[in-house]
Amino acid sequence: MSTPCITLYPTGQKLPQVGMGTWKLDKNLCEETIYQAIKMGYRHFDAACDYGNEVEVGLGVQKAIQENIVKREDLFITSKLWNTFHAKEHVESIVQKQLKDFGLDYFDLYLIHFPVSLEYVDPSVRYPPGWAYDGKNDVRTANVPLQETWTAMEELVTAGLVKAIGVSNMCGGLLVDLLRYARIRPSVLQVEHHPYLTQTKLVQLAQSEHIAVTAYSSFGPLSFRELNWDSANEAKILFEHDTVLKIAQNHQRTPAEVLLRWSTQRGLIVIPKATDPVLMKQNLEHIQFDLTEDEIRAISSLNINLRFNDPSDYLSDSKRLFIFA
Length: 325
What we know:
Layout: E1 5-7, E2 14-16, E3 20-21, H1 27-40, E4 44-46, H2 54-66, E5 76-81, H3 88-102, E6 107-112, H4 146-158, E7 162-168, H5 172-181, E8 188-192, H6 200-208, E9 212-216, H7 222-225, H8 230-234, H9 242-251, H10 255-264, E10 269-270, H11 277-285, H12 293-300, H13 311-316
Helix pairs in contact: 1-2, 2-3, 3-4, 9-10
């Protein structure tokens, strides 16, 4: 079974619509999970400096390549620029480190993780740096404009270190501003997206500008309940929502498959994380059925603009400073 792909603009790359996320993927499980995922058919992996596991994810990738299960060019690997490396003098050096950690010569896609610039922390002091300058609760913003960071991102493409560039956790206003000066346009916008937070206007804006949209946290509060966040603990689990359960029963599918199909059927890319082989297979193969238009509308109607991963929270709430996001 081949996974459908989204053609990226302006590069023409084929990005598999179903990938595997690596946020909160335990280091001890990374190598084997990624290796088994590739054997199962996954070709798209979403990583980041801030997840703290790129070395281990890379080991799984390298194992599959060494055993001739795949070639490097068969895989689509995304990573991200962390907030403390936004200044132009730090961008190339940190991507070089990330590539070395992964054991790769290039990333297929490289995203600005958050549109928030923080004071530089040398990797020899602490890596990944996290949100706090001191590793505790001292959050220091840096005077680095987005245009400076984006120009440095464009130079990564010129240098052949990355094939495409994009952004994450960015609002519509910042996206429009970026498009005014971008020499190389963003190929992808990655945002929190689930039935409680449909972000309809932002998705429409991105797609109208030929920017592919990757949805993370497709299962809503579930990922954040693991982190014991109050907003997630108070929200009803989408797997247990009557609307989702009814649709799942209609199709003899799991609620997770329904939630993923709600996104992919509307042209979005999804990156669910799983370590259980059964769940990994279900996530990968959820594209084998279609929802009706009425079912899509019913799921979309659950929107209550409930955002769990808000950059402003990290700048004002010390309780979240140690959470990889």
